[in-house]
């Protein structure tokens, strides 16, 4: 039986020892692991409560310039990035709680975020797009939403570093517009120049969206750069993205 957590009083021990099955199989890396559970949250202001994703990890570290040898828990980096992006109006999951603790020589960390209600992954949306004949206007609304969200991320010089369709979540509004939210930001990093973010992330997204045709990809770039016609620099970037995509597909 799965226990409820309480939105108003989270603490490390309660969340670390909470009995909850894995939503995704834990990721094993070197001497550490990292896993995700979906848990109900009891909320005094809402009788029905809500669900959240509880991420727990042990010795799952990332080196930083301040901690170049041992590193820090990746969830610490993700939590800081979520707060930063929230402050700048970039759509990401709402963080509820983060904490880390040393236990028996191990570095353990927990991160709790609110579940996205009514959203599905871009993976699922692209499958529907392939199976159904979406009107051009609906396709373009979807592409515009994703392009503008990613462009805003890059305008703040943040590189996602894992911009796969499964890490972009989509919700269609009743009036036909789309909302896009970026998840899994534990690998995200700041860069000196926004073009570095563009080149890396759009290469990944371009490679992993084979369902999209050339016209759809071109429309994405128009919306990403918010131009009616690509200029010299944006055309050069498009060529670089295409060539990098082809190289990665060969490996």
Automatic annotation (TrEMBL):
Gene Ontology MF terms: kinase activity
Pfam family, one: Kdo
Gene3D superfamilies: Transferase(Phosphotransferase) domain 1
InterPro entries: Kinase-like_dom_sf, Put_LipoPS_kinase_InaA
Keywords, comma-separated and alphabetical: Kinase, Transferase
Keyword check for Nucleotide-binding: no
Keyword Kinase part of the UniProt annotation: yes
UniProt protein name: Lipopolysaccharide kinase (Kdo/WaaP) family protein
Organism: Methylobacillus rhizosphaerae
